[in-house]
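Quick board copy: two proteins, each given as sequence then tokens.
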Amino acid sequence: MDLLEKQLKALADKNRLTLLACMKNGEVCVCEFVEVLGISQPAVSQQLKKLKDAGIILERKEGTWKYYRIADQLSPVVEAVINELKTNDGGNTCSC
């Protein structure tokens, strides 16, 4: 599958867009995403895996927790989508 196609498929989900909006403010622990989305930790992990496999986010492990942030190098299309997402500063309900 073409990388851009994989990235666009990863972006085509409301929960994953919410996760990315939270990460616009910086690195976020997986435990915070559970509260934001109101779904189980395994379900959050599945959503994060799709974003990670598409090269949109990066993962860092510290102790038993995993932290996620938006990748430094993204295609212009993915950057444009992320730039349109509103964070808490923009009045969104995201609590990150």
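And the next:
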Amino acid sequence: MKNYASKGKRIGLLLAMLFITSWMFAQVTVTGNVRDERDEGAIGATVLLVGSQKGAITDSEGNFKLSVPNWKI
């Protein structure tokens, strides 16, 4: 009996570790729009994630899309 309980605890621990690891590496897509002082879309503006080297450049209407790690939000 004791051997089965030990295996159950190991499997439970393994599943918990897999869940936590997959959550840490999950990505979230952040979208937005950058406007200038005339309230027009800022073309070619750089949007950076603070503390990383991830970034995006706005399109012709000022829109951007950036994939961000779930734990950075």
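Board note added afterward: The CA atoms of residues 26 and 33 lie 23 Å apart.
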